[in-house]
TrEMBL record:
Domain Thiolase C-terminal: 265-388
Lineage, broadest ranks: Bacteria, Bacillati, Actinomycetota, Actinomycetes, Mycobacteriales
Protein name per UniProt: Thiolase family protein
Taxonomic source organism: Rhodococcus pseudokoreensis
InterPro entries associated with the record: Reg_chr_condens, Thiolase, Thiolase-like, Thiolase_C_2
Amino acid sequence: MTARHPFHDIAVVGVGMTQQARRLEMNSLTASVHAAKAALADAGIDRTDVDGICARWPGPGGTVFQPGSADWAGLLGIPVRWIGDTYPQGVPAVLDAAAAIATGQCHTVLITGGQAGVMSAEAGRVASYTRPENEFVEPFGSFTTAQFALVAQRYLHEYPHARDGMAHVAAAIRNTGSANPDAVMTGRGPYTAEDVLAAPKVVDPFTRLEVCLANEGAAALVVTSMERARDLPSTPVRILGGGAEWMRQQYVDPPRYDDVWMIGADASRRAYATAGLEPEDLDFVQLYDVNSAEVLRQYEALGFCKQGDGGPFAMDTGIGIDGGLPTCTDGGVLSFSHIGWGAPTLKIIEAVRQIRGDGGNRQVPGARTGLVAGAGSGAQYYNVLVLGAAD
């Protein structure tokens, strides 16, 4: 390992989530509270042990100024020393929390979020969070999948052979989710690449089996120092490295392939350097599988293969649980769950469970290091987190 980085003294010590389902009989706030309680119980601490909050406030009540993490202090009935409102979800939330803990601003951070009670109102329509009220999005009927499709179409023009690879990774990740009893799409499969290509088209080039879910649930994490973690009953998972790239605000201006296809390459290099690892040292990856092309893109940007070789890499290496690079081991947002703002946190929960050895029938043998990623080309930002066993 390289010279010790301050992140190495920080760990995820608690993970929790609600049931992940097409619909839940609760609202987003209630779901997020349930997930937070589960994460605190997993960590073996009480809410009064928390002195930092990084959690988008979903309402009702509270502030109308988003993200509004400070409202959680009032709900939990605790004073806090630090709130993280920059991007309170997934990898950015963990990196912000780790920095705050490492610099002594707080010692224990709760991260929670998700959505519930909203999808029933959107049945048969594009989920509202995929069509923000931005000047070149909502008025023209654009939505997030179309933004990603713009980039994927150019990629296929440059590398036509990638079409087979896209279908292969979609089938592989969905089949992993089909075997996960906790996945929203459990039992839906197995699929072949041919099934993926034959499915109804959503946005060219994507078929229905190549794009992510939109469902309900919540997820939460507890992050603290390794010093405190040693006194807790849970198994800590150490933060080894991380990084982010922000090109521009998401879903405002359309993405350009030349700008965004390799977004994440710099962030991952910095994350690897901090962790003292190379891509081949990772035991698994939890990619943001928002669509099939984005999975191939991440293999290339993260340094597993050259640009244009994402499809052959996936097919030759194997991305299932028993493959050379297990990918999205819970079924990802393609099959396990996509809960809006809480979806990136699900990726970290699955990584923590794998490193703890709690993966059940989807456990990657001997997993000790893994990478979690969020967002991508269509969103025009990307973030990376490398986690490892505490010892």
